[in-house]
Amino acid sequence: MAAPQSDLLVVSAEPFNAETRLERQVGLVTPVPRHYVRDHFGLPAPPDRLEVDGLVERPVALTLAELRAMPARSLFVTLECAGNGRSYLEPPVPGEQWGIGAVGTAEWTGVPLAAVMERAGVSPEATEVRFTGADRGTVAGREIVFERSLPVGEALHGDALLAYAMNGEDLTAHHGAPLRLVVPGWYGVASVKWLARITAIATPFGGYFQAERYVIEGAPLRRVEPRAVITSPSDGARIAPGAVMVRGYAWTGRSVLEAVEVSSDAGATWSDATLGRGISPYAWRAWEFAWRPAAPGDHALLARARDADGAQPAAARWNALGYANNASRPVRVSIA
Predict the structure, then answer these.
(1) What's the CA gap between 328 and 3, in Å, rounded?
(2) pLDDT tens across 133-191, in order?
(3) What Å distances lie between residue 259 and 97, 301, 316, 329, CA to CA?
(4) Is 33 helix (H, G, I), strand (E, B) or coil?
(5) What is this structure's pTM?
(6) Which of 295, 301, 315 is nearest to 265 (CA)?
(7) pLDDT by residue (tens digit) across 64-74?
(8) What is the secondary structure of 192-246 as a DSSP string?
(9) Cβ atoms of residues 211 and 203 within 8 Å
């Protein structure tokens, strides 16, 4: 299937990876054609059922029709790729060279994962739940299936969804049709697409995408680090003297977003921005800041998010695979 033709910023054509153009984002929900896409391999044949097995009392196989017949829930969730911001690291690291657009917010609809696990009956011996997608490919001579796991408590008591719809429409192929996992607050790698199997297991999962990739110092990536981005004005803009409204979005998966601060002097001083309303605990929030430049000339604007666990850093935290780089990105403007 051909890659979607839209106003995404394409990072790689095969497998297809593309960014949301954040400067074109309007409102809090990202339209499906503008929502970032992260594919690790080519598009697979879509599974015709979901198998639930392993350490469960009642292994089940559910068709999409059977899943749709179960009580549904909708959640607004911001998904972000763990590699977002990788292209700004120095020295450079391998992998898709994402800017800061590997993020988007959608309304996801599906069956709560907890309801399906309850139907299967998870055994007390289970410590994790493994999720297997239909996508696979060859990495360094090995055939790799895309798999990730969640702690059993997250699977049984969290807000994860087995989603079959996005913004009120059936999932598209590049967003994981017919069924995908959506794990609110976790980096997008946890939200396995083209979901084919759920397996309750007794020991920590050590698959490729859990132990060799999407790790920092050996620890699998989980919760999204706080980030605020500036979407207006754009980098390099020339602006007439007078009041300037600085706008953007902010999100976190660690805890509650508490504030966004803006600096117009490259981080020497900071002022509070105004946070817009939240549509979900798991979705980004818009913010704005009325800036009155003190003098003409060149200025570096920065924004940083703060949650209950701390603030977004000013400097990048380098790691060999380029994950979780949530350092504030300067937007340089000229007042003339």
Answers:
(1) 31
(2) 999 999 989 999 999 999 999 999 999 999 999 999 999 999 999 999 999 999 999 99
(3) 29, 17, 20, 17
(4) helix
(5) 0.96
(6) 301
(7) 999 999 999 99
(8) -SSEEEEEEESS----IIIIISSEETTEEP-BPPPEEEEEESPTT-EE-SS-EEE
(9) no
